[in-house]
Amino acid sequence: INNSWFCSVEEGCNPSNFILMEEIVKNLKASGVVVVVSAGNSGGSGCGSVTGPPAFFESSFSVGASNQSDTIAGFSSRGPVEIDSSFRLKPNVCAPGVGVRSVVKGGGFLPFNGTSMAGPHVAGLVGLIISANPLLAGRVDIIEDIIESTAVAKISEQDCGPFSGSMVPNAVFGYGRVDALAAVKRALDFTSDT
User: Could you count the other beta carbons within 10 Å of the beta carbon of residue 102?
Assistant: First the structure.
């Protein structure tokens, strides 16, 4: 499932119900659903800008946005997660999120920017992985590991909290930019014994 929205106070989200929302994400993951969430578009404010639920939840697979130069989009939110004092790594990975051709109401196409454009790339990749190897259906941790371990490693000049930008993973790109072909090839190698 893909979740591209930032849940604001106006939409009924506040720290008093974050625990309930996180339980829902945990239950989805436990039932075999990969919960892909856009990291947010507050990167201009720097580190610790992954602040919206459900992007900062441990169980969410959060996605930042890369641009046509295969670098991070300036707006892409960065970790670590400070809002709950966990300082966990987010985003998990990044995917194209600048100038993404999208269908618009009434017909036609327009290019859009945002981590909401990046998240669907990863949700689609989950579908490709399961299609390539149905043994992986419901194996959320393995699917997430495949996506992270096959991502094109990306480093940043920006250090954020305990995450050096020169290391992988880091709080700007996570494990890197997703690589669909490499992930599908890895999925094809998976057997129930591995």
Answer: 14
Q: At what angle do helices 140-150 and 180-189 cross, to 10 degrees?
A: 130
Tokens 């046509």 found at? 68
Dihedral-angle region of residue 150 (phi above 0 means left; psi in -120 to 50 means alpha; beta otherwise): alpha
pLDDT by residue (tens digit) across 32-75?
A: 999 999 999 999 889 999 998 999 999 999 999 999 999 999 99
Per DSSP (E only), the strands in the chain are 2-3, 36-38, 61-66, 93-96, 100-103, 109-112
Distance between CA 75 and CA 64 in Å, rounded? 9
In the sheet that 36-38 helps form, which strands lie side by side, from edge to edge?
2-3, 36-38, 61-66, 93-96
Tell me the pTM.
0.95
Structure confidence by residue, pLDDT tens digits, 83-137: 999 999 999 999 999 999 999 999 999 999 999 999 999 999 999 999 999 999 9
Query: What is the Cα–Cα distance from 90 to 126, expressed in whole angstroms?
Result: 19
